[in-house]
Write a structure and sequence with these properties.
Elements (H helix, E strand, L loop, with lengths): L8 E5 L5 E3 L9 H4 L3 E3 L1 H11 L4 E6 L3 H12 L5 E6 L13 E3 L9 E3 L4 H12 L6
Parallel strand pairs: 1-4, 1-6, 4-5, 6-7
Antiparallel strand pairs: 2-3
Helix pairs in contact: 2-4
């Protein structure tokens, strides 16, 4: 686990957030395990890679459960080693999100914190820069 410079946590969803599927408007629960065609959201992953080593607690969660979140994380981040936790994303874990946290998800959730869509990487860069005071804005 990294030595974080602040206590902001970034919660990142899997399907249609880290992994982008070809199906428009459909939910893709377990899409990775089912073998549905996808591409990695490289722009989002690149922003997260630039910050995760020292700045933020990264939490990967999914409605597909903790094991699914870990499997997707391993596929997307490989041996990054800086993912701090994996959770099932449901009403039992929503109360983990605090007002200073960032949630990246393709669905609107009823949680505190700042919520961003998977393609809102510029806003994510701004928020991470504001919180860390050191994140380079590319």
């Amino acid at each position: 686990m990294a030595d974080h410079v602040n206590n902001t946590r970034v919660f990142i969803d899997c399907d249609d957030t880290l992994l982008l599927f070809d199906s428009e408007g459909e939910a893709n629960l377990y899409g990775f395990w089912k073998g549905d065609p996808y591409k990695v959201n490289e722009e989002l992953v690149n922003v997260l890679r630039q910050t995760c080593k020292t700045c933020f607690t990264l939490i990967i969660w999914s409605g597909g459960g903790k094991k699914y979140a870990k499997a997707v994380s391993d596929e997307v981040f490989g041996d990054l080693g800086e993912i701090d936790a994996w959770f099932c994303k449901d009403f039992t874990t929503f109360d983990l999100v605090r007002s200073e946290d960032i949630v990246i998800d393709d669905q609107a959730l009823t949680v505190p914190g700042v919520q961003l869509r998977p393609d809102d990487t510029e806003r994510l860069r701004e928020l991470l820069h504001d919180h860390a005071g050191m994140f380079p804005i590319a």
